[in-house]
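Follow-up to my post from last week.
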Amino acid sequence: MQSSEFALSKIYKRGHLSYYLMSDNRFDDCSENQNPILISVFSFLRWKNYWIRGVLSIAMITSFFFMISMGPVALIFVVMTIQIKCFQEIITIGYRVYRSYELPWFRTLSWYFLICVNYFFYGETLADYFGALVQKEEPLQFLARYHRFISFALYLAGFCMFVLSLVKKHYRLQFYMFGWTHVTLLIVVTQSHLVIQNLFEGMIWFIVPISIVISNDIFAYLCGFFFGRTPLIKLSPKKTWEGFIGGFFFTVIFGFILAYLLSQFQYFVCPVEFNSETNGFSVECEPSDIFVMQQYTLPSLFLFSFQKSVNLYPYQIHSIFISSFASLIGPFGGFFASGFKRAFKIKDFASTIPGHGGIMDRFDCQYLMATFIHVYIGSFIRGPNPTKVLQQLMTLQPEQQLAIFHTLHSNLRERGLIAPTE
Amino acid sequence: AIFIHPKDDSENQNPILISVFSFLRWKNYWIRGVLSIAMITSFFFMISMGPVALIFVVMTIQIKCFQEIITIGYRVYRSYELPWFRTLSWYFLICVNYFFYGETLADYFGALVQKEEPLQFLARYHRFISFALYLAGFCMFVLSLVKKHYRLQFYMFGWTHVTLLIVVTQSHLVIQNLFEGMIWFIVPISIVISNDIFAYLCGFFFGRTPLIKLSPKKTWEGFIGGFFFTVIFGFILAYLLSQFQYFVCPVEFNSETNGFSVECEPSDIFVMQQYTLPSVVQSTLKWKSVNLYPYQIHSIFISSFASLIGPFGGFFASGFKRAFKIKDFASTIPGHGGIMDRFDCQYLMATFIHVYIGSFIRGPNPTKVLQQLMTLQPEQQLAIFHTLHSNLRERGLIAPTE
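User reply:
Got it. Predicted complex:
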């Protein structure tokens, strides 16, 4: 092999994703490689491709910052738009795989199910957070009281329409598409709602995980590009162990610094609450303990003789766990998507973003993250919400409230929290 | 029956064959009838054994249904040689069951859980543990992908998850309904069974107009007759069962006896009330009012759902069987097919009853609110105490001196 061809093929092995994968086998033909004009044209196109990827990466990150500055409402709309686009991409793949364009009703039914499931989830979330607003309006109160029943009835209507739309020759295709739609809903819609619930805990729970996943992507790519040698997994031949471990290392550092930067601002740290006076969202609060700087004594292993202890936000310790998850387990989401694309013989989910493929290509690692953060918050961070308990108390019958009052009274008196005379 | 038989004249003219077929056809009806009665009898027996036995029965049925559907998937995709896949499917079943049982048990066995230290740990971090277990299975799936079988493996992965979604969530809704009161378990299932039987009998005796192409055996006469008789049956069954605390009371775990107890003050819907009939009915029937349990009115809605919407679950299963060219889900029950064949109409019902109870019957549970109160920080408890105190005093429910 000529040296130029060897150099070119070695570069292709190193973490390189572009439309050049398709033209790889052209370079096995030595006669083409000897043509200097072709080499320079391909070099130019390859650098153009990197340039496009780089510009668009920076464009996406910039728009991410811009959307954060616009506040929670804008972010909810962005999440919803991304969800709809991902859903559309996956359903379109299903259509292509099953050549299902002529199935009656099916596009309508898929979108109808998407609307139903979104209605259900948004209703559940909004009823909690917009409690005050809902109490005021009469029709909203009705919708909130019977929300689950209305959602179920809407879903049933879609289910019955599906059964009635079964056509003799297309049974199997229709059931496949029904299953495909439901699995897509399960993945895309539930995860996007978990993202929104994480957002309501505090915008830091939205920004930090997403940034960490993006940084892991970028650092793993760069480390693989510069140092990549040992392949990681047969599913994704472009990934290397060097990229994996380098990405883990740099991502933990990045997450640590980012957590430090963001923990100082109430805008990011406070739960998003709906303010019924101003009819808007407010992010003002007393920051919870994990966002208050604390002093940690270093274990004696650390031979830092100049520092006995460090001042850290506890959230930075949490960020180490979040980064570890993103670097070690998150890539499995990417492998899953790679396997999915190979299984159905597609190059990218779609061609929405030049150089990057579709929206799903960018978000495939984010999905496991959204669920992980939600479970993490529920298990390790958030205790029960006193406002919510009080709300539930107020909806009980008077006799039940009295009973609870007396039980609570005696319990608090026993524990000495209330003076016996009170 | 096995006798969807050709209308071949030459065979039909043979009197020996005719009598043999008639005998076999009656034998087939006989088998179906005997097994129907056997299943109904075992249903009554299981009810008498109490809630714990019923939970075990539901779990057994769930596992059997899951196995039947997964086996069909294997056959359809000829997937016996896929590495790990049986193991992974059963592993996901165990994970999802662990998650759901943990959520339910943590609520109902609150007292028991507080006592045991390891159980407390499992309960506190339950969601995280379940998620970690699921992730382990997910990573195993990704690592098990084999080059030539990608598409098959993804199909089976999707098939397993859809099956879990249908079978496991519904069976847990059945158990949650059971905990509301065994009547919420018995009446819906009995109504679906009765709709099956009455629609079949009405179709058998009066059936003429086909209902839907998917199930050519179903007729409009069966459909409407089934609806009519099912409403009556549900009405009577609701009347019979509403009188007993054993059926009507929520199932609670008694920490002293370490068992389940069903004793309570029956809620309003199980107390006989007097309804004034509208004047139209008064003039025809010469009755001023009737004494009914409100639950009987609810049973009319439950029966209507079972008769009008429930069959769509059956049509879905019929379409599924035609799509994958199978006659029955399995051959577990002679004359009836597999367990899924008997339970396909029940699935929509379980979700409907759960949503129905949540929307129309059950208010917030005071015990649960108290539990949540006890897990708060002391400062938060004090704050809520004072708010509640002033609220109750304002409304005059507490004397100002208290």
